[in-house]
Amino acid sequence: MLPKDSHIDLFLGWKTSGNWTLPATYDSILNAKNSMCGDECNLYIERKENQIRILSLGGESCSICQASMGILFSNQTLWSKDFFLNQLEIRKNALEDETLSKRIPVDERRFWELILTYPNRHRCALLPWVALGKGF
Questions:
Q1: Residues 84 and 136 sit within 8 Å (Cβ to Cβ)
Q2: In the chain, which residues have pLDDT < 50?
Q3: Which of the 8 DSSP states describes residue 112?
Q4: What is the pTM of this model?
Q5: What span, in angstroms and rounded, lies between the C-alpha atoms of 33 and 131?
Q6: pLDDT value of residue 1
Q7: Any bridge partners for residue 54, and if so which?
Q8: Helix (H, G, I), strand (E, B) or coil at 6
Q9: How far is 69 from 80, CA to CA, in rounded Å?
Q10: Which of 25, 32, 40, 105 is the most exposed place for a label (fewest CB within 10 A)?
């Protein structure tokens, strides 16, 4: 039985925002691993000039990491390096300052609000962003 304050249903809902089916073709896999807990995040991508499109998601990870992957997948179809760095900075600052920026999209604010209440899970929430950053 889950505790009353469990947010697993919310995290699973965000997870479903992503595509978890292995694509027929992809250019490469961007991978990040959390050395503290073993969570692993795989982003199957295609490259278009200087941009990256996330085609699908994979890896063994906790519900927070999977929710973050789903949110990342649903955010943008093509990522440029500048846009990625800007969006990553917004989220990192929110976690460091413990305040949510109005620049975080409304549909993902609840996720980051919850993550603020779990300081030991910030690495889980940022792991997909670490993986995407390896592509630039």
A1: yes
A2: 1-2, 4
A3: H
A4: 0.90
A5: 8
A6: 43
A7: 45
A8: coil
A9: 18
A10: 25
